[in-house]
From TrEMBL:
<dbReference type="GO" id="GO:0036126">
    <property type="term" value="C:sperm flagellum"/>
</dbReference>
<dbReference type="InterPro" id="IPR000974">
    <property type="entry name" value="Glyco_hydro_22_lys"/>
</dbReference>
<dbReference type="InterPro" id="IPR019799">
    <property type="entry name" value="Glyco_hydro_22_CS"/>
</dbReference>
<dbReference type="GO" id="GO:0003796">
    <property type="term" value="F:lysozyme activity"/>
</dbReference>
<dbReference type="GO" id="GO:0001669">
    <property type="term" value="C:acrosomal vesicle"/>
</dbReference>
<dbReference type="InterPro" id="IPR001916">
    <property type="entry name" value="Glyco_hydro_22"/>
</dbReference>
<dbReference type="GO" id="GO:0005615">
    <property type="term" value="C:extracellular space"/>
</dbReference>
<keyword id="KW-0732">Signal</keyword>
<keyword id="KW-1015">Disulfide bond</keyword>
<dbReference type="InterPro" id="IPR023346">
    <property type="entry name" value="Lysozyme-like_dom_sf"/>
</dbReference>
<feature type="domain" description="Glycosyl hydrolases family 22 (GH22)">
    <location>
        <begin position="127"/>
        <end position="145"/>
    </location>
</feature>
<dbReference type="Pfam" id="PF00062">
    <property type="entry name" value="Lys"/>
</dbReference>
<protein>
    <submittedName>
        <fullName>Lysozyme like 4</fullName>
    </submittedName>
</protein>
<dbReference type="GO" id="GO:0009566">
    <property type="term" value="P:fertilization"/>
</dbReference>
<comment type="similarity">
    <text>Belongs to the glycosyl hydrolase 22 family.</text>
</comment>
């Protein structure tokens, strides 16, 4: 099974981390509790520094608003709630997600994990765009391609995650709870 991969990761030179750790974690003879507190701060700092630098996970309501503004509300008869549900189950609202499925030999791109074989320039290119264009947080190309996909005979059924998680859900309304469109 494939895994998501981020496009870039922050790189912290090991020497810098070592210097920081050595200076902060040096033994404190007067206050042993201070040493424990310093260790906690260093671990938190290191965790912060190695977080991907350009991850752009969007909030649920931000996604809903962008999809609404892009014309997906009731597009081809599918409610906005269906689109937000799909975005969650495909990418967890990460418009820059890239998923490599080695078993089925495809790569999914962006918010809706649009497959390279059919829809972007690494395959048949039915959306007439590069796969990297699907990784933009403004979602314009993603929405354009999703409209092309859903106009096909399978509609939103082109995404197995929609069929499994959204199609017959009786809780779709929750995807827009509290969102101001």
């Amino acid at each position: 099974m494939g895994m998501y991969r981020e496009r870039k990761r922050a790189r912290v030179p090991a020497v810098s981390v070592g210097i920081i750790c050595d200076s902060i974690l040096s033994p404190s003879s007067q206050h042993p509790e201070l040493g424990k507190m310093k260790a906690s701060v260093v671990l938190s700092l290191i965790g912060y520094l190695v977080v991907p630098s350009d991850t752009a996970v969007l909030g649920r309501c931000v996604v809903a608003k962008k999809l609404h503004e892009g014309g997906l509300s009731d597009f081809e008869g599918y409610s906005l709630e269906n689109w937000v549900c799909l975005a969650y189950f495909e990418s967890k609202f990460n418009p820059m997600a890239v998923y490599e499925n080695s078993r089925s030999d495809f790569i999914g791109y962006g918010l809706f994990q649009i497959r390279n074989h059919d829809w972007c320039d690494h395959g048949r290119n039915r959306c007439h765009m590069s796969c990297s264009a699907l990784l933009n947080p403004d979602l314009k190309k993603t929405i354009e391609c999703a409209k092309t996909i859903v106009k096909g005979k399978r509609g939103m059924g082109a995404w197995p995650s929609w069929t499994l998680n959204c199609q017959h859900s009786d809780t779709l309304a929750r995807w827009l709870d509290g969102c101001k469109l």
